[in-house]
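Lab notebook, bench 4. Still working through the backlog of constructs that have no structural model yet. Next entry is a single chain of 595 residues. Request: give me the C-alpha cells for it.
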Amino acid sequence: MKFKKHMKHLDHSEAASCDPDKNERFVLRKCAVYLDRLLDAYPLADRDTIKLLAWVMGPEMISIGQTLLERMSPKEKQKYEQDIEENILDPDEAADSICRILRQPGKKRTTSFVIAVRDVLERRYKALAYAGRSDTEKKLVVLSKMFSLSEQEKVLVEFLYIISAWRQGEDYFVDHLRCQDISGRRYLKMILQMTDREMTDALSGTLTRIEFYEMEKHTFAISDDFLAYFQKPSNELLAKNYFVRFSRKTIPLENHLIDPKVTDHLLSLLKVKRESPNHILLYGPPGTGKTSYALGLAQKLGVPAYEILREKDNTTSKRRAAILACLNMTNGGDGSLVIVDEGDNLLNTQNSWFSRGETQDKGWLNQLLEEPGARMIWITNSISNIEDSVMRRFAFSVHFRSFNRRQRISLWESVLRRHRVKRFFDTEEINRLSFRYPVSAGIIDLSIRKALETSKSGQVAFKEIVTMNLDAHITLINDGVKPQAKEKIEENYSIDGLHVEGDLPAIMEHVQEFDRCLRRPDQRAIRNFNLLFYGPPGAGKSELARYIAGHLDRELMVKRVSDVVSPYIGETEQNISRIFSEAEDAEAVLVIDEA
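Model written out:
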C-alpha cells in the first residue's frame, strides 16, 4: 500500500469559490506565490497547471475568461464565449475549456495568457490578505521553534504541509510536476527559491533526522504523526507528545546506595547552566534505582526538569525529535534539566541494524552531546554497544550494580526508618523481605507508602499490605506469573546423609573461615575459594552447594554451561568475566552447574 493512501487530505475544492477562512487563505496565497514563480521561469499552460490556477483564482477566473475573449476574433469569440461563461468557475471544466482555446494556432496566445494570469495572480494574492495569523501558521511557528528549523527548512515545511493536507497541492506538485523526483527537482527549487545546496541541506537536515516527511517514487508527504498535529485543534500542542515537566515525588537521594561524594559532585555539575554541556550517564541492570536517583537529583536541584516521553514503538527518530523539541523549548534563559530514561536505543549505536533493525545517526548524537548549555541525564541498562566517541562526551557516569543481600537489608532499613515504621519489623523479618523481594528502593518506598495510606487496622494489616504490594509487583514484572522461590536448601537437609570422599566437616570449617575473612572491612587481597563437586547424577552435588550458601547466609547464584559457552569468538570469555563479576558484586556463592 502506498504511503499517501494513509494521508487524510482536506478536500476544499470549493474553497476558492466561497469566502475562504484564514487557513484556506494561507494555503491559497502560498499556492499563488508558487504558481507565479513557476510561470515566471516556465510558461506552463497545460491542463493540470490551469486546473490549479482555477482553484487558486476562484472568482478571479472570470477576468481571465474575459481577457481570453477580448483577444479573439469575432468568429472565435462566438465559438468559445458560451463555453467560457458556463465553465470558467469550475476548475476541471475551466481547464478543459482554456486548453481548447490555447491549442489553436499561434504562440502569442499562450504567452499572452501567461502574462494575464500572472497579473491576476498578484491581484488575487492581495485580495486574500487577512489580519493576524491562521491556525496553520501558528502551528508552523511552534514547530519551527520546537526543532530550531532554518529558514529553508521552514519554507520546505510549508510546502510539505500543502501537498500533504490538500489534495489539490498533491495532485499538481507531486503527481504532475513530480517534485519528489530528480526530474522535477528544478521545479521544486524554483517554487521554494532555493539553490542546490540549500535544497540539499533542507532535505537532509533536521527534518530527515526527526522523520518529518517521506519521499519516495510516488510519495512526498509529511509523516502521519506530524500531519496529525496539523489536523488537531490548535490548543493541542505537539510538545505534549514529546516531553513532560517532572512533578512526581521520589525517594530522597540519601536512600540510594551511592557514595555521597559522587552525589555532591553531580549536584555541583548540574546546579547551573554552563557554557559547556554537562551530560551524565547512569547505567546498570534494571531495578537498581537509576530512574529514581535521576529524579531525586532533579528534585534536589530545584531546576525545571523534563522527562522525555516514550511511546509504544519507541523508535529512535521519535525520541530524537522529542529531545530536540525539549531542549529548544525549555533550555532558554537559566536552562532546564532533561532526563532521557531507557536511552539504550539512542546511545548503543554499534550494531543497531542487526539488533533492532534501525540505522542510527551517530553524528547527530555527537553533535547533541556537544550542544552548549545542555544539562542532561541519560539512563541506560547496557553500555556494551556505545561508541568510544560517545562515551568520552559524558561529563560523569555512575554504574548502578545489582544489590547484594547486605545492601538490600540496608535499603529496607533506610526506607522503613524514613517512613517511621521500622519498629514494626524485627531483624529476621527485614532479612526475609530483602531475600524474597529483590526490588529497587523506589518499589520498596511505593509499597510502604500505599500500605500506610490504606491500612487502618494496625501493624499486622500493614505488613500484609506491604507484602501484597510487593507480590503484585514481582508477578507483574514476571509477565503475570508469580516467581518461584529462589533456590534454597530443604528445611530438613543434613550433610550427614552425604557420601563424600574426604573430611566434609573440615572443608566446611575452611569455607566458614574464608567467609569470615571476606567480611572483614580491612581485607584488601583478591582471594577465591574454589570447590569441585563431581560424581554421578543424584548424588547431592547441587544440594550441597545450596547448603553451603545458606549456611554462610549468602545468596546462591546458579549458572549453567549454556549461560557461559557461546559459539562466537571471545564471548565465552566475556560471559565468564561477567558472571564472576556479578557474583562478586552480589557477594554470592557462585555455582557453575553441569560443567
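Notes after review: The radius of gyration is 35 Å. The chain has 28 helices and ten strands. Flag for follow-up if needed.
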